[in-house]
Amino acid sequence: MTKKIEKGDLVTVFVTVWDLRDHIVDQTGEEGVRLRAGEEDVFPRMDQALLKHKEGDRFDLVLEPEESFGDFDENLVHLVPVDKLGVENPKKGMRFSYIPGVPVDDGRGYIITDVGGGMAVLDGNHPYAGWTLRFEIQVMRVESVEEGDIAESDIFIPDFLKVANEAVKEEAEDRLEVDEARAKIAEQLDKVDEAKPENAMGTGLFTSLVPKKED
Known about the structure:
With 215 residues, this protein is α+β, with helices and mostly antiparallel strands. It folds into 2 domains: 10-69 and 129-177, Chitinase A, domain 3 (Roll), CATH 3.10.50.40; 74-123, Thrombin, subunit H (Beta Barrel), CATH 2.40.10. Helix content is 17%, strand content 25%. The longest helix is centred in the last third of the chain and has 30 residues, at 166-195. Residues 202-209 have low confidence and may be disordered. It is built from 2 helices and 9 strands. Strands 1, 2, 3, 4 and 9 form a 5-stranded antiparallel β-sheet that branches. It has a 4-stranded antiparallel β-sheet with strand order 5-8-7-6, with no helix packed on it. A hairpin with a 2-residue loop joins β7 (110-116) and β8.
């Protein structure tokens, strides 16, 4: 019998990320990535979606910026003199954990996105910030494991499957809670509708509200 994913299971998934123009922008290796279901290894909505699937399933998940990498923030883009970077021959793609000369200590990584005229542009936004993305997910394997049996070295989550930072994570979790609450309310309303008689007027439930016809 195909195993359904449960919280704490070790799950191997193959993921392809598409933009809204149906271009592939990222992808896991053929062997996929291993994660712990329901343990916040990946985006909150993706984490919850996995718990509704089983080994062998393939499904799509569309995530808005506030559920993944956040909106683009122009305040996270800094223009820095090249000679202040402390490296020789700085190039695009180089990563820094700080902004030289700027009192910023938010644990965020910064990437050089452009170099020219003795200046470098350091951007603290995730490369996919502001993007709505579609994640095509294939559940390759599901393993039941005991707590403590998974070493940290067994888990490696690429950046394109994790929220950009704690602020975005909190916003994504809040949105997920709201959506789940709405879904429960909708489910309850559906049950109420199903419980109503097909012809309530003929059951006597509302007879007292219907004016009697005079002879």
